[in-house]
UniProtKB/TrEMBL annotation:
Residues 33-137, 138-190, 313-504 form the Hexokinase N-terminal domain. Coiled coil: none annotated. Pfam families: Hexokinase_1, Hexokinase_2. Signal peptide: none annotated. This is hexokinase. It catalyses: a D-hexose + ATP = a D-hexose 6-phosphate + ADP + H(+); D-fructose + ATP = D-fructose 6-phosphate + ADP + H(+); D-glucose + ATP = D-glucose 6-phosphate + ADP + H(+). It comes from Equus asinus asinus. It comes from the Eukaryota. The keyword Transferase applies. Residues 1-26 are annotated as: Disordered. Belongs to the hexokinase family. One of its GO terms (cellular component) is cytosol. GO terms for molecular function: ATP binding; D-glucose binding; fructokinase activity; glucokinase activity; mannokinase activity.
């Protein structure tokens, strides 16, 4: 596009606009006409300059710049959503200024998606000139336009003025719900095309535009999430002279004789210009059928819908918002279950001795093998512990689902095959190095190298393993493979491995925490408190197996119907109740069930059930981490959800975000209550006024979720104020820890021999 207009462009070179000077004086009338028309010719380059100038003014106004004043106002309208078709009800609309010197009153009936459209009934009243220019009796009117000049109105709340006028009449009971700019009403009243209508445009007696903006870009709102409709008030654009090069002497003459010289100049640009200036935007122009009247009613209806949906959302999420008293009660219940478990009494916390009696002291040396089995992946590691630190070489092998849920022999043969492959690649074939086996499932240990599998978790269900010594199962598999020699020194829970791994760096680390696919904790307990293990002095690391906390019904008061649905659909109904409220394997499913419920209430996705949400495990826990990221704009959140096949609006995206936040927060707070119970137990064991302790942590949920770790720490601070707790993220997790358990065991054995 080279030019816009019938002829050439004149007037300019930055010359001042004076309607009394510069009129063309050619010799004949034909040339006079052509000369006049040439002044309305606008080049593509000039339009791009105007576009850039307008965009700059918009960004300045959104950012709150006041000096110099931006050329457009960018006023927030506090309309936070566009219609999605379900709005219903009867509304009265008063329309002032949309068609010049008139007042229109409409009765608008909205019938929702299924209903037959009912045309608004309206009556128009002419406003006399003396009223338009006479005295006026918060939405605050900034300035009159379109010929209105009523005194005593600019700077006043026009809604309050209307309410006072209604009261003076005394015969009507009318509730003024919203004041709406006609441009906003036009946007809200348009029938959506392929997508929602998100821009409004008025080109009539006056001109203006509005659009849906990200709230985080609007400085005066101080909001991080959601959107808001912005009235550009672009009629005043060029008050700073930005349009000078394209103004003609005729524009100047018209401006000079208007009610507000120097203000409200803007050239209307049609669709071809938009296509030229914004070639990457697919823009459709949809004529508003009845002006802003229907749109004003729609603003009110949308506000009512959002309020009703927000109430339903809050009611649904209320059970997930735990009070300080509820969390303190969980802490006390965990503490009581810990004491019972240590005594050997019936308890949902098994409190299993691990026979790990010390944390690293830094003198450990040697080469060690480590195995790490605790989820869908299995690792084999070579760990070299030297004076300069720990060096690790590892390889990850997958555990196919058919193996994880097949026979025990098949599972352990697969593990040994992986070890043999690793040894061959590392040149270790035939060597017998001390081996630590991280086995991240509930075990009752009878010694450092003896562990009876109590029950499978995390989706494993290999047969003929529960009730068996897993070290024996591993040794039998080794025996079935010729030429393999492995010295299995220790079986280690992944939580214990995490504690030991961090303990190598920090001697204060006496607690281990896992929050990933599953969840668990361990800590160093006084040996005298551990029933069934001989000795009254020293310490013993206790594997709490806290994922099973609440299996005795103690968590029922906090459990929701959504938790019950997830539990019933799991492979171990009624078991691992605490884990199912905290860990990454289940949070996505909890969210999915909540979304299904909200959809059934009509709160989400226009009440339309989607096949996507019916699919189990479709909503991965990693989506919670991505959706709750502070760096994502709402449109990016929408993109994540749309990739799942969810046909959602921005309102839906905000509500899904709230659901994710509520589920994640509850998980983190419950985890924090557990940690608080543990550190308080250690403090009281030692009779300290204040305890300084570190917690070694591993697990993808804890590490990758943007807020989980901070919410855990905040909960611990509130529930255990006399404990100074530092959280350390394990760099290599349980693999390095298993080798360090083995290294410590070798060091202690050597000391005993000496």
């Amino acid at each position: 596009m080279d030019t816009i207009g019938p002829a050439g462009l004149r007037q300019g070179e930055g010359s001042p606009c004076n309607p009394q000077e510069g009129l063309p004086c050619p010799s004949d009338s034909s040339e006079l006409v052509q000369e006049c028309l040439r002044q309305f010719k606008v080049t593509g380059a000039q339009l791009q300059q105007i576009q850039a100038s307008l965009l700059g003014s918009m960004e300045q106004a959104l950012g709150g710049q006041t000096s110099p004043a931006p050329a457009v106002r960018m006023l927030p309208t506090y309309v936070g959503s566009t219609p999605h078709g379900t709005e219903q009800g009867d509304f009265v609309v008063l329309e002032l200024g949309a068609t010049g010197a008139s007042l229109r009153i409409l009765w608008v009936t909205l019938t929702g998606i299924e209903g037959h459209r009912i045309e608004p009934r309206s009556q128009e009243f002419v406003i006399p000139q003396e009223v338009m220019l006479g005295p006026g009796q918060q939405s605050t009117l900034i300035s009159w336009t379109k010929g209105f000049r009523c005194s005593g109105v600019e700077g006043q709340d026009v809604v309050q003025l209307l309410r006072e006028a209604i009261q003076r009449q005394g015969a009507y009971s009318i509730d003024v719900v919203a004041v709406v700019n006609d441009t906003v009403g036009t946007m809200m009243g348009c029938e959506p095309g392929v997508g929602p209508c998100e821009v409004g445009l008025i080109v009539d007696t006056g001109t203006n535009a509005c659009y849906m903006e990200e709230a985080r870009h609007v400085a005066v709102l101080d909001e991080d999430r959601g959107r808001v409709c912005i009235s550009v008030e672009w009629g005043s654009f060029s008050d700073d002279g930005a349009l000078g090069p394209v103004l003609t002497i005729f524009d100047c003459a018209l401006d000079h004789e208007s009610l507000n010289p120097g203000a409200q100049r803007f050239l209307s640009i049609l669709q071809e210009t938009v296509m030229f200036l914004a070639p990457k935007c697919d823009v459709s122009f949809i004529p508003s059928l009845d002006g802003g009247g229907r749109g004003v009613a729609m603003v009110t209806a949308v506000a009512a819908r959002l309020a009703a949906h927000q109430r339903l959302l809050e009611e649904t999420l209320a059970p997930f918002r735990l009070s300080q008293e509820q969390l303190a009660a969980v802490q006390a219940q965990i503490r009581e279950a810990m004491i019972k478990g240590l005594r050997g009494e019936a308890s949902s916390l098994r409190m299993l001795p691990t026979y790990v009696r010390a944390t690293p002291d830094g003198s450990e040396r040697g080469d060690f093998l480590a195995l790490d089995l605790g989820g869908t992946n299995f690792r084999v590691l070579l760990v070299r512990v030297a004076m300069g630190g720990v060096q690790i070489t590892n390889q990850v092998y997958s555990i196919p689902e058919c193996v994880a849920q097949g026979s025990g022999q098949q599972l352990f043969d697969h593990i040994v095959d992986c070890i043999m492959d690793f040894q061959q690649k590392q040149g270790l074939s035939g060597q017998s190095l001390p081996l630590g086996f991280t086995f991240s499932f509930p075990c009752r240990q009878l010694g450092l190298d003896q562990g009876i599998l109590l029950n499978w978790t995390k989706g494993f269900n290999a047969s003929d393993c529960e009730g068996q010594d897993v070290v024996c199962l591993l040794r039998e598999a080794i025996g079935r493979r010729k030429g393999v020699e492995l010295n299995v020194v220790a079986i280690v829970n992944d939580t214990v491995g995490t504690m030991m791994s961090c303990g190598y760096e920090d001697p204060h680390c006496e607690v281990g925490l896992i929050v990933g696919t599953g969840t668990n904790a361990c800590y160093m307990e006084e040996l005298q408190n551990v029933a069934g293990v001989a000795g009254d002095s020293g310490h013993m690391c206790i594997n709490m197996e806290w994922g099973a906390f609440g299996d005795d019904g103690s968590l029922d008061v906090l459990s929701t119907c959504f938790d019950a649905s997830v539990d019933q659909a799991s492979i171990n109904p009624g078991k691992q109740r605490f884990e199912k409220m905290i860990s990454g394997m289940y949070l996505g499913e909890i969210v999915r069930h909540i979304l299904l419920h909200l959809t059934s209430l009509g709160v989400l996705f226009r009440g339309q059930q989607t096949q996507c949400l019916q699919t189990r495990d479709i909503f991965k826990t990693k989506f919670l981490s991505e959706i709750e990221s502070d760096s994502l704009a709402l449109r990016q959140v929408r993109a994540i959800l749309e990739d799942l096949g969810l046909p959602l609006t921005s309102d839906d995206a905000l509500m899904v975000l709230e659901v994710c936040q509520a589920v994640s927060q509850r998980a983190a707070q419950l985890c924090g209550a557990g940690v608080a119970a543990v550190v308080e137990k250690i403090r009281e064991n030692r009779g300290l006024e204040e305890l300084t302790v570190s917690v070694g942590v591993d697990g993808t949920l804890y590490k990758l979720h943007p807020h989980f770790s901070s919410m855990v720490a905040a909960t611990v601070r509130k529930l255990a104020p006399r404990c100074v707790v530092t959280f350390l993220q394990s760099e290599d997790g349980s693999g390095k820890g298993a080798a360090l358990v083995t290294a410590v065991a070798c060091r202690l054995a050597q000391m005993a021999r000496v």
